[in-house]
Amino acid sequence: MLPRGRPRALGAAALLLLLFLIGFFLFGGDLDYGRPQPRGAAALDGDLPAGYGGHNSSDCDPPRPRPRPPKCELLQVAIVCAGHNSSRDIITLVKSMLFYRKNPLHLHLVTDAVARNILETLFHTWMVPAVWPQVSWIPNKHYSGLYGLMKLVLPGVLPPDLVRVIVLDTDVTFASNIAELWALFAYFSDKQVIGLVENQSDWYFGNLWRNHRPWPALGRGFNTGVILLRLDRLRQAGWEQMWKMTATRELLTLPATSLADQDIFNAVIKEHPWLVQPLPCVWNVQLSDHTLAERCYSEASDLKVIHWNSPKKLRVKNKHVESFRNLYLTFLEYDGNLLRRELFGCPCPLPPGAEQLQRALAQLDEEDACFEFRQQQLTVHRVHITFLPHKPPPSQPHDVTLVAQLSMDRLQMLEALCRHWPGPMSLALYLTDAEAQQFLRFVETSAVLSARQDVAYHVVYREGPFYPINQLRNVALAQALTPYVFLSDIDFLPAYSLYNYLRASIEQLELDGGRKAALVVPAFETLHYRFSFPTSKAELLALLDAGSLHTFRYHEWPRGHAPTDYARWREAQEPYRVQWAADYEPYVVVPRDCPRYDSRFVGFGWNKVAHIMELDAQEYELLVLPEAFIIHLPHAPSLDISRFRSSPTYRDCLQALKDEFHQDLSRSYGAAALKYLTALQQPRGPI
Amino acid sequence: MLPRGRPRALGAAALLLLLFLIGFFLFGGDLDYGRPQPRGAAALDGDLPAGYGGHNSSDCDPPRPRPRPPKCELLQVAIVCAGHNSSRDIITLVKSMLFYRKNPLHLHLVTDAVARNILETLFHTWMVPAVWPQVSWIPNKHYSGLYGLMKLVLPGVLPPDLVRVIVLDTDVTFASNIAELWALFAYFSDKQVIGLVENQSDWYFGNLWRNHRPWPALGRGFNTGVILLRLDRLRQAGWEQMWKMTATRELLTLPATSLADQDIFNAVIKEHPWLVQPLPCVWNVQLSDHTLAERCYSEASDLKVIHWNSPKKLRVKNKHVESFRNLYLTFLEYDGNLLRRELFGCPCPLPPGAEQLQRALAQLDEEDACFEFRQQQLTVHRVHITFLPHKPPPSQPHDVTLVAQLSMDRLQMLEALCRHWPGPMSLALYLTDAEAQQFLRFVETSAVLSARQDVAYHVVYREGPFYPINQLRNVALAQALTPYVFLSDIDFLPAYSLYNYLRASIEQLELDGGRKAALVVPAFETLHYRFSFPTSKAELLALLDAGSLHTFRYHEWPRGHAPTDYARWREAQEPYRVQWAADYEPYVVVPRDCPRYDSRFVGFGWNKVAHIMELDAQEYELLVLPEAFIIHLPHAPSLDISRFRSSPTYRDCLQALKDEFHQDLSRSYGAAALKYLTALQQPRGPI
């Protein structure tokens, strides 16, 4: 977001660019240079409903009864959001709003392409009852790079039949029911079109430091972090011409360095003071530098909206900042799943997909021993794709993305993985909301991880007793942007050369020519906790012979990788084809449009086996690469596996899932799937 | 808690005991058998403030303006709480209350000895501004076992100058500001002494099933999960005589199986209906079986208090239960640290210790590179001792408690530890509020852990960037109840025989005769992830010779354990004395009144070394036990250690802490501490 209320030092080039864009924007359209309408500044407090004034008036006027929050009315909210970081910020804002709300909400999210992608997925999977998120991407070139001015153009961007809207910055936090804010529209006179809270610093007085030349404003000016807009009247009043004219004129003499929508709003209001309805200060308590906010809330026991409009954000100095921070952290770490609660007493249509889901859940038998499995399979997890800034890899015909999933207890693998795999990665992380913040700090404090822009982290929020391993894999897979994917697991480290070798192999084997193949990367394991990673196949073989390394799961479950034929691999100089066999679960490289994982397999067991089976059913060739290898590092058994390994019910349920999987396989592939049935009926070893 | 509003099947013995206790209670005091005052039941709704009625009246009466919540008034709340599980429940209630409150609160916690111990520690460490917790243990024999009747005797138990109090069950959750409830006292007429919400089931009509014989009640009766009490008037009116008389009379003809305070309250009210002020139903929305609560909240958009008064608790069937559950889970998992926020606009004295703490924190220099270390050292973590039911070990003169600390990523060690150590344990767990709930489920689903009553789990709530290792050790140490403690770490498994061997050694070495000694348990490690634990010293030595085991940290930091003299240990038949040397950090058995750990060492490094140094300074003999051993299992480096190992600042800060520690040591032990200074100045290897 562009800065509000404070100049940020811009380099000369950036300044030029900004001016260019503004010029383009201002003069590119159909401007009507109508006469400005200068008028004296109206007394700020004069327009206030008594008891609702800025901090100057509230101690003398008697309180007027509050407007009643409208029961069940649909409230309209618009938020401008661009980029990865604002897409995270907006979630905390929305959580705080949902926590206190009692009304249905229509969210108008005005975004760039990055935020659109993130927010569409997020709200689609969040499934909050009585919330309609409408994510609008603004593709117009006029707008890109000008998100700081976007609030000015909302009357033109939002649906033409929209009459009223509350516009919010992404850095505000609600401490109250937004319907109370909505109710303030009732105080608007016939002429008023914009509701704003007074600016809570002396910025617009221009006396904060020498050579401080703020834009013109009425008195202390207004802050645009929270706006009530009468869109109908703005459109009628020719709002677009009005603000463009004012901006154009002011830009002739004023610097653009501090330019943001707020300056233009203030300049327009200075000229047309009857447009503004001042709002009670508690609806935008501004924790900016030089804030005078204390004058407001020291008298009001009820804070309504906190606005973190200092560049210092949570680290701003303020007498009560700890309380404000606690409120913010409350929602930052709040389990968003809990906000899926329905509204009472208001007709509450369910979000798309939710009804079908509820029907499916209702059909489950709670007495079924596998009830929790089936419930988990149906769970729609909230998904936040590209949780951290991410630069998509340049398009290359043989590029490969490493795909894996993890939870908190494997974070320490990430640095090593980054050292071993210099290419793009798509990782799904299974986290609570609070853990997602820990993860954020972990990446920020890691030099290795911060340096990588090509690793996409997708947060899948935790819900339910089982680790939804295949749902996680599918999220990571769906977000891989290269033509090929390496489907790995987080406990493996690839050979240092693997990334380059895979790309070369894909090219050499002409997979892009339509050859349908899965390239097998042989897997090994060390049982030693301290371990020096082999830098070549020769070194690996030496370690294998010395007993320091083993083929993967050699001791417990050799069938899982036996078809890879490690003996042949030792000698192989060229890729060789192997045949599918029961229980085969190699790590493979495939085109990214490969079949998805079967999401019925949650927790532990059979999740990869089923996927390889489906690749085979679709007649993927299985080609083992002679120089490729990955090594599994030892780790303590995860909580879930310890919990469920001992459970006979777990094994029974897994068997039931396998049977159902096979029935589906037969349905899809007919007689060709018979061989899997035969294989299934063989006695099984440990999971 | 005793059941409310629903009979629970009691065995004949329990029934007899209950009757005996009641009889004892009723007839043991100075009872005045004054005449009962029968009167017709007043019409329930007649006494209601309009708009505040039970669900029968609220749809016709026009709403009356709400009483204003009292600004800054101190609100009095009483909660009866007994045992480990209620001590957990009460925290969720208190969190929900604190979240919405805007007033100072005085909490009167009426407890048994277990809950007193837990809650005193919890509130002392929670340090919530403007909350005065007063934990009263009820030692009177009359009362013990009668917690279900405790609410009746509150007028006698609470401070005699207390005029009004809100009484809450531990199974209610607030969804609103408690001051609004307090404000309802204003509706009491001169005669009214008790405010109650109507019972939201037909229980007292006695028609729920055949042979259902409820106690007498006015109409549908009242629920006692939320009570407003005018204590002054109750005392004046001779409340104690009143209810004892009614109860005595009714017990002549009615069964005591369903007996709880609620029945007696209702019987008294039936007799004296003018005593009661009916409260709006939203202040006690009862999710009992057969609940009619929907009639209440389907019309009120504002739910105030949810009451989980079904034995099914969160699994109760109800149209809106998911919403209620979400509210409950919100506070169950809410980070209690965030509730330490101060109140605005009310004079807000700090809890004991908080002022001193704030001064110390204010003196820290934010620019100091070690600022975060020093901040963490000063952090007072909330501590919940004996988070799960725990049976103190029987008093035995040579008994030893294993003391250790862990966080979530080591939970999977607990089962193995239980198998290796059959004796008492005192474990500190460093968890978030949400993780504490995961931990609870983990123990519940583990047969091994559920079977153990002698393992005390103490939750220390997370706050700050460093793992406060020595604070955790001190919490676990302070809660050990045997005369000796074995100071271990969570990654070690003891020899199967260690517990018995230690007790025998303590007896044999006559440590209880005043010999000041620390028994050294030699430590080994395996780097192999899969590992068969040696069942004897001979087997251990064989594994050592085979290279499958090593002495602990042999590869990285042999100085840490070199003074144990492993060569001598191989041959030793008897305990032998060793001398302290720089960097020595053995695992030892000491009397539980040993010196505490130095809590300045947070994160990783030097935390045990400092403790052993202090033992040596206090002239503990170091005696190595010839048959004792523990083995360290491999694990991935923890998040914190990976993060900080690479940081030069971290090393510098650790050095600064060490220097300060030594200065303190010199101050305490004078010239005798000189040898530690010399040792400190030697070059150091890795942490």
UniProtKB/TrEMBL annotation, chains A, B:
Q: Say what the protein does.
A: Bifunctional glycosyltransferase with both alpha-1,3-xylosyltransferase and beta-1,3-glucuronyltransferase activities involved in the maturation of alpha-dystroglycan (DAG1) by glycosylation leading to DAG1 binding to laminin G-like domain-containing extracellular proteins with high affinity and in a phosphorylated-O-mannosyl trisaccharide dependent manner. Elongates the glucuronyl-beta-1,4-xylose-beta disaccharide primer structure by adding repeating units [-3-Xylose-alpha-1,3-GlcA-beta-1-] to produce a heteropolysaccharide. Supports the maturation of DAG1 more effectively than LARGE1.
Q: How does it sit in the membrane?
A: Single-pass type II membrane protein
Its keywords, alphabetically, are: Glycoprotein, Glycosyltransferase, Golgi apparatus, Manganese, Membrane, Metal-binding, Multifunctional enzyme, Signal-anchor, Transferase, Transmembrane, Transmembrane helix
Q: Which reaction does it catalyse?
A: 3-O-{(1->[3)-alpha-D-Xyl-(1->3)-beta-D-GlcA-(1->](n)-4)-beta-D-Xyl-(1->4)-Rib-ol-P-Rib-ol-P-3-beta-D-GalNAc-(1->3)-beta-D-GlcNAc-(1->4)-O-6-P-alpha-D-Man}-L-Thr-[protein] + UDP-alpha-D-glucuronate = 3-O-{beta-D-GlcA-(1->[3)-alpha-D-Xyl-(1->3)-beta-D-GlcA-(1->](n)-4)-beta-D-Xyl-(1->4)-Rib-ol-P-Rib-ol-P-3-beta-D-GalNAc-(1->3)-beta-D-GlcNAc-(1->4)-O-6-P-alpha-D-Man}-L-Thr-[protein] + UDP + H(+); 3-O-[beta-D-GlcA-(1->3)-beta-D-Xyl-(1->4)-Rib-ol-P-Rib-ol-P-3-beta-D-GalNAc-(1->3)-beta-D-GlcNAc-(1->4)-(O-6-P-alpha-D-Man)]-Thr-[protein] + UDP-alpha-D-xylose = 3-O-[alpha-D-Xyl-(1->3)-beta-D-GlcA-(1->4)-beta-D-Xyl-(1->4)-Rib-ol-P-Rib-ol-P-3-beta-D-GalNAc-(1->3)-beta-D-GlcNAc-(1->4)-(O-6-P-alpha-D-Man)]-Thr-[protein] + UDP + H(+); 3-O-{beta-D-GlcA-(1->[3)-alpha-D-Xyl-(1->3)-beta-D-GlcA-(1->](n)-4)-beta-D-Xyl-(1->4)-Rib-ol-P-Rib-ol-P-3-beta-D-GalNAc-(1->3)-beta-D-GlcNAc-(1->4)-O-6-P-alpha-D-Man}-L-Thr-[protein] + UDP-alpha-D-xylose = 3-O-{(1->[3)-alpha-D-Xyl-(1->3)-beta-D-GlcA-(1->](n+1)-4)-beta-D-Xyl-(1->4)-Rib-ol-P-Rib-ol-P-3-beta-D-GalNAc-(1->3)-beta-D-GlcNAc-(1->4)-O-6-P-alpha-D-Man}-L-Thr-[protein] + UDP + H(+)
Pathway entry:
Protein modification; protein glycosylation
Q: Please tell me the species this chain comes from.
A: Camelus ferus (Wild bactrian camel)
Q: Which cofactor does it need?
A: Mn(2+)
Q: Which gene encodes it?
A: LARGE2
Would the keyword Manganese turn up in this protein's UniProt record?
yes
Q: Which InterPro entries match?
A: Glyco_trans_8, Nucleotide-diphossugar_trans, Xyl/GlcA_transferase
Q: Which family does it belong to?
A: In the N-terminal section; belongs to the glycosyltransferase 8 family. In the C-terminal section; belongs to the glycosyltransferase 49 family.
Taking the first listed entry, what is the main subcellular location of this protein, grouped into a coarse class?
Golgi
Set out the biological process GO terms recorded for this chain's protein: protein O-linked glycosylation via mannose
Q: Where in or outside the cell?
A: Golgi apparatus membrane
Keyword Transferase assigned to the entry: answer is yes
GO cellular component terms, alphabetically, are: Golgi membrane
Q: Which protein, by its recorded name, is this?
A: LARGE xylosyl- and glucuronyltransferase 2 isoform X2
Pfam families annotated for this entry? Glyco_transf_49, Glyco_transf_8
What would be an example GO MF term here?
Answer: metal ion binding
